[in-house]
Amino acid sequence: MFAHQLSRRILSRRILCGLCLFAVGSWAVSPVVISPVAAAEKAKVSSPRVAQASAAQARVVSPSEKPAIEATSRLLDQLLQREFDKQGVTPAALCSDEDFLRRATMDIAGRLPTPAEIRSFTADTDPAKRRQLIDTLLAEPAYATNWARYWRDVFFMNATNARARFAVKSFEEWMTAELDRNASWGEIVTQLITAKGDVYEDGSTALFFVHDAEPEEVASEISRVFMGTQMSCANCHDHPSDIWKRRQFHELAAFLPRVSLKQDLQAMPPKFELVSVNENQRRGEDFLKQNPEMIFQALDRNRDRKIDAEEAKGGRGQFARVFPRVIEYGDTNKDGMISLAEIKSIQIPARPGQGTIEYYMPNLDKPSEKGTLIQPKFFVNGRAPGKELSDEERRESLAQLVTSPENPWFAKAVVNRVWHEMLGSAFYMPVDDMGPSRSPQHPAVIEALSEAFTASGYDLKWLVSTIAHTEAYQRSLRNSSTSQPEPAFAAAQPSRWRADQLFSAMSSALGIPEETRMSQAPGMMGRLAQRNSPRGQFAQLFGFDPSMPREDITGTIPQTLMLMNSPTVNRAIDGTIRGGSEDSGARAGGPLAFAFNRFPANRAATEPGVALNRASVTDLYLKTLARKPTEAEFKIVKAYVTEGGNNPDAAADLLWALINSTEFLSRR
């Protein structure tokens, strides 16, 4: 009996796969009625004035001084329309209320709208309801959580430190708090560049911790994430396709050598702390190079002009600790001892994250040499903070240079990123490889939006709201009638949800718990358990670097198998339909009990010809796809239930098909 039921269930789900494909086709490839964008207002909307903020002390911008959101969004649409007119392109019509509600709720708050929200929004006749929805979503705590997870992926997906995963929780909590209070992007970036402290207590240390506080790696991330420019190629040679020279890269890294990742591996759990290395904190290797004669006089007790391991132990202190590394790098004749001449010629590379007083650009032809002493200088404008600066002063000056309104790449980088995340495509692609040698799509649009974002005081909520208000964001999907690619932003582009957005959708649709009790625990236990929580495991399988172009992100076989066959997902589907048990949720009239009320078990056997209840199918569509089913889709479901029986298994099969559809996984 069990085998028969199982084979029937598998077959039925194969049949319902046709419904999956039908559902996808109904939104992704069907033609739409095209209407022209409303004519631009006769009154000219001038480009918002850039705030003249000092690089040393950014001025706080009051709400009344910020560029008007709706005026700015109209300006962006007008600039886009001019380009479309030149190309003879008619943009797609605005999307339906259902599509806008799903798109905006997921993009801003990282969740699906509830069936009640969908019914209320679609029934609302207020012409300002889309603007009101954007304001409501930005006021939700979920906004900060959603975008903190986005920035977590930006930083941690490129981590070079294998231990970085242990700092994910502290970074998320810190970034969520900053976004929740609407800290400016300039404030957030300044904290990341100047951070110090325990990496498990202060999430702002993540930028350095995920790259072991290595100056070259951190410099690459600062230019990539905060300015959208790829400088890592210039680590070893002049950039092959941009204007950046190798020396400029190392001048950027020279802001960062005095940062040390202090490790206490004896502590339980191990402790990692970001600290500054200053002039009076010499490492053992530095002392060794500066005082070789003194060391020999004190330790060469048998006067054989060599120091062996036993003599090194007598030195205790600094030399005893560094002796193994001295032998590793200085024992040229491999006799297990070190001579005065060997000490004087030794080149001991710094260990990752240990910090140095000065920064040296390696000599690639002679890697054993110390290299060229480099002083910090900002590659964008050639400004140098000066010499004789402490670590704190170097990093503070770098933060000021990066976040200054005079640095055009700072505003452009985040504008390009947020636009890409919300529309699925951007002005510069990839988003982290802009550079002065690149030509953006619609340059006037990104210039106008970047200027306005700067004038807003780098207000991230203002930026998200402005983009969401544009017609470019609110356009519908459509098929291109020609083989030529459609101009950017003329129609909406379907793109895959990030792992966290997709898990939130599954959690709300199926009731899968976000975390376990252990993952919510404080300290190391919570950090370890978070990775193995339902959300953490899902992120490991479905996560991707959000800096990647969306068209490069494809599903994998393990992802498909997880959605189709995971015991957790299938139990959640059955639990959603049956409401736990007949005597609990189902009979109590809970929100998950509709299947027992509308799909009574074996009812078809006693009442032949009973039709599938339209309301129950609509409920399932609203819970998963955030829209009502089309008539064609309802007919497919009705035919399936007529053949197999009107029972909870049929409802579970329908829910399974919807969860596994491309539409559920994607922005529409």
Please, could you describe this protein's structure?
This protein has 668 residues and is mainly alpha-helical. Among the domains are: 2-26 and 555-667; 144-266 and 372-403, no CATH class; 284-349, Recoverin, domain 1, CATH 1.10.238. It has 33 helices and nine strands. The strands form four sheets. Strands 1-3-2 form a three-stranded antiparallel sheet, with no helix packed on it. A hairpin with a 6-residue loop joins strand 2 (259-264) and strand 3. The protein is globular and about 100 Å long.
Short description:
By secondary structure, the protein is mainly α. Among the domains are: 2-26 and 555-667; 144-266 and 372-403, no CATH class; 284-349, Orthogonal Bundle (Recoverin, domain 1). It has 33 helices and nine strands.
Which features does this protein show?
single chain, globular, 668 residues, two-stranded antiparallel sheet, mainly alpha, disordered N terminus, Recoverin, domain 1, 9 strands
Summarize the topology.
Blueprint: H1 2-28, H2 69-87, H3 97-109, H4 115-123, H5 129-139, H6 141-156, H7 168-180, H8 185-194, E1 197-198, H9 206-209, H10 215-227, H11 246-253, E2 259-264, E3 271-276, H12 284-290, H13 292-299, E4 306-307, H14 309-315, H15 317-330, E5 338-339, H16 340-345, E6 359-361, E7 372-374, H17 391-403, H18 408-423, H19 443-455, H20 460-469, H21 471-474, E8 495-496, H22 499-510, H23 523-531, H24 534-542, H25 557-565, H26 567-578, H27 582-588, H28 594-598, H29 603-606, H30 614-624, H31 631-644, H32 648-659, H33 662-665, E9 666-667
Antiparallel strand pairs: 1-3, 2-3, 4-5, 6-7, 8-9
Helix pairs in contact: 1-31, 1-32, 2-19, 2-20, 3-5, 5-20, 6-7, 8-17, 10-11, 12-15, 14-15, 18-19, 18-20, 22-24, 26-32, 30-32
